[in-house]
Amino acid sequence: QVQLVESGGGLVQAGGSLRLSCAASGRTFTMGWFRQAPGKEREFVVANTWSGSSTYYADSVKGRFTISRDNAKNTVYLQMNSLKPEDTAVYYCAAALRWLSAQSMSMRRQYEFWGQGTQVTVTS
Asked: b/e string for 34-70 if b means 16 or more Cβ within 10 A?
């Protein structure tokens, strides 16, 4: 069993930046971020594999968000720049114990473990 703990959410003005962190209690292979806005389905944001050799971004965040990992700390980060009000959501960290293809990374059912979520609010 792997536990995931997110941190770094908060309130920011449009155009600002935030950095989210997700610390895993054990080693994982694929880690990613999803988000859920009020009244909407949870949607994929970005994910990558342990080596970073495979990374997949949702079109809505390409060029603005960057995922990175510190494998020594079992931690994944999400740097969010040029934030927009539509980025407002609860952000969830997810982890899988196996390699996921780029196509599979966007599928919630492929991930075995989830964090509790951290709120990101972007004001206009």
From this structure: bbeeeeeebebbbbbbeeeeebbbbeebeeebbbebe
- Are 82 and 64 a contacting pair, CB within 8 Å? yes
Task: Please check the confidence at residue 102 and state whether its pLDDT lies above 90.
Answer: no
d(CA 84, CA 77): 19
Instruction: Give the C-alpha separation, 57 to 39, whole Å.
Output: 23
Please write the tens of the pLDDT for every residue from 38-94.
999 999 999 999 887 889 999 999 999 999 999 999 999 999 999 999 999 999 999
Q: For residue 103, give the 3-state DSSP assignment.
A: helix
Closest to 17 measured CA to CA, from 62, 107, 84, 74: 84
| CA distance linking residue 44 with residue 13, whole number of Å | 23
